[in-house]
Amino acid sequence: MIRVQREDFDPARETEALVGDDHSIGGVVTFTGLVREMADLGEGTEARINAMTLEHYPGMTEKMLARIEAEALDRWPLNASLIIHRYGDLEPGDRIVFVATASAHRQAAFEANMFLVDWLKTKAPFWKREDAETGAHWVEARSSDDEAAARWTETPSKAAE
Amino acid sequence: MSEMKVLYFAWLRKKTGTGQETIHPPAEVQTLGGLVDWLKTQSPGHADALADLSMVSFAVNQEYAEVEDPVKSGDEIALFPPVTGG
Asked: Which helix (H) or strand (E) holds A100?
């Protein structure tokens, strides 16, 4: 399942609902992304942020998240998965993203979760604008995120199957 | 006459001064690269936004695309910086 929403979410409630009464699930891995209070301005400098705005491309966002999720379901033996991504105005400490992966065994759940987070960071059309004490700026894409996503294209792990 | 919808996001929206516009490019515009070259001539803001294409990603009908990919009448084209979600 995927959801793109302005509203906050409750990780515990989402996890419980995802697992439901499927007792063949042996583990569920959840990742919750938060708004960090310090912005990386590059060249080793940081600034405290007051707020963040997340812009997205309605339509394409849902399409890309659904595709990434379908790929995870194809590559790992998952019983259930969920991606929630927020947009709009956020503050430091706020939840931005939630990724949950449930499987009979932990390895598939852990790997699929990392795959989903790495891939949504480089494929889902969201843009962060940080309102920092030094002024407002659009966050720049990081090459380390591209590298994190690229490792999943090299040798797909089938060990968990 | 060819008609396309162009969407701009993040700083491309700020620089071009619009989030969405309907355009009527000339018939010679057959590729995304050709469209970008034509868009640059439409205003100083467009020229500024599209000056460095290494900073711009493209989508045609909500699919990632490259400059050599074709565009046609009725397409929804989106221009945006590399994504920073998650």
From this structure: strand A95-103
